[in-house]
Fold this protein.
Amino acid sequence: MIDLENVKKSYATGVQALNGITLHIDKGEFVFIVGDSGSGKSTLIKLLLKELDPTSGTIKVNGMNLNKMKPRAIPKYRRKLGVVFQDFRLLKDRNVYENVAFAQRVIITPTKQIRKNVPRTLSLVGLAEKYKAFPKELSGGEQQRVALARALVNQPNILLADEPTGNLDPKNSKEIMRLLETINERGTTVVVVTHNQEIVDAMKKRVIAMHKGVIISDERKAGYIQHAD
Amino acid sequence: MFSLASIATMAACIFLFGIFFCVVENFQHMVREMEKSVAVTVFFNEDLSQEQIDDIGEQIRSRAEVSDVVFVSAEEAWDEYKEIYFEEAPHLAEGFEDDNPLANEAHYEIYLKNVESQDDLVTWLQSVEGIRRINESAQVADVLTNFNLLVGYISIAVILLLLCVSVFLISNTVTIGIAVRREEIAIMKLIGATNGFVKAPFVVEGVIIGIIGASIPLALLYFLYTRLVNFMGDKFNILTGLLQFLPVNEMFRILLPVGLALGVGIGFFGSFFTIRKHLRV
């Protein structure tokens, strides 16, 4: 499902963000990517989203070689990925329903279909009642659940979450993780980039630890792996 | 807010363009009218027979730049002369009754399609056998030709300038729009919006600005032009022979589609190329 082969990425500033990453993630897996700031986690997510191109190495996702992908094919590729961020990135001038429907409109889904899909997805994340609320009227946890609903409404087969609990308290963090687990159980491959040691320890999932652009450990059902400097 | 500013400036530009267009069109209309009255006159050698004169007439008629050729016989020339100069005292002309003083003044009046081709025609006429003298209104032709060119050049310069200003303004509006909606655009792109989907709202906005920005000044110009033509007709009817304005319907048959096309074109291309440059989607 996700294959990286000796991927390197250096920026124009000379910073070497990734220094030879080889990684394989199977369909239906739940994977944590952990590491300190500057370890290359966010660069990895950007490469998977095809926001960036690697300096060398190959990346294959859903059977598609991202290195050879033409710009015109990128939108179609991204429709098979769902993505959530630490800062939620909701549209502040639109209510919950519109924020989720927005993702469907972008891929030109018929309105009739949107009216069915949006409430169903909002129920999944437990926000069916608050479909009229605006982001500023919601708690951080609720906003992240709206972001999750937006990422899921187009039924992606991979969900990328970049620090999804970074702005949340422990209670809300646990709820989001429980949701991610439910989504994973329904067949979606979930990749979570996080700093949150407590959550990683509690979930007992595969953990890939990164440090200075390389993978220092890759263990199944592991806890948070501290790097040794 | 920025769209309103764009509409206002676009309207101002198209209004100026419209005024300029009206002036140029009317001037050219007047020049065309004047050109119709500018003629080259040719006189013949005294020994020429009527057949030879007719033959010269046929040759002149076959020239592409000639719009009309009128033959004026010696008798007609004398009648016209009498009418003009002896109108008050016809008895003075009676002395010439049997001795036409203009006996050798039979001539062709040649009217041109375009005053600029007068020089070519005169050069050719000089090479035709049997022509004694050619009268041309060279000065009038030169002035009209030069003025026509000058107005043409100025109009092109002003129109180009206005186009540049309008494109810059639309581009500015789109740039601001992109800045305001940067987050929304980023989310759209991450979700998998196609290039066309991201660009479409900006291009549609540009075209709408173009349509509104063109419609307002065109309506205003229609109103003002109608008033001006009526006003000039009423108050300065002494000048109507000289100042022949194009009728409002005839003017707007050209100005309306040109103005709208200009507005829509500027709106479309201005926004299309700006978003392409800024988003690189």
